[in-house]
Fold Serpin domain-containing protein.
Amino acid sequence: MEFPIQAETSSFNTYFCLLLANNILQAKGVENGSNTVISPFSFHLLLSLIAVGSKGRTLEQLFHCLGSKSLEDINSLASQMVDLASPFNKSNGVSIGEPDLSFVNAAWVAQSLKLKPSFQEIVEGVYHAIAKEADFANKAEQVVAEVNAWAETATRGLIRNLLTAEALKVINEHTALILAVDTIFLDKTGST
């Protein structure tokens, strides 16, 4: 099977993604026997989604981290990655078979920032994600419930509480964005 991603972009800045994963694992203090999975693929898509809504110095820093020079390049690679990671082709109903892969993305943006139609179009069209406005300041509990309901549906019940009660301590009027990116492999029995 040939993959459409070009050789020079296929690493999608693996060094940065691995460094980030290592920092997360160290910060989390992973213990023996713990069940932690770090996905450079997901990190790349998460940072790419952030880049789509960024500008100025933030966007330049994301270009550097992602090893890219333009949003067009980032979105092109992301589109190829999403298509590659989605073995079920919605347009023709063809599945490549087992294992079943569930690839889900979503973005909740503070309603004070107002979603731009161009951002929403790219998020939905390129990243196959949902993008919604949310009232983090006044309805944090509802936002947590919505994110968790989305995660449970999108992951076919494998993830029920993406955001715990602890999230309510940090979701407030200063929260601008919640991004969720996940890839789940299911075997014939439905287990991961």
Strands lie at 88-89, 94-95, 100-110, 130-134, 177-186. Confidence is low (pLDDT under 50) at residues 1-10, 89-94. Residues 120 and 156 are 24 Å apart (CA to CA).
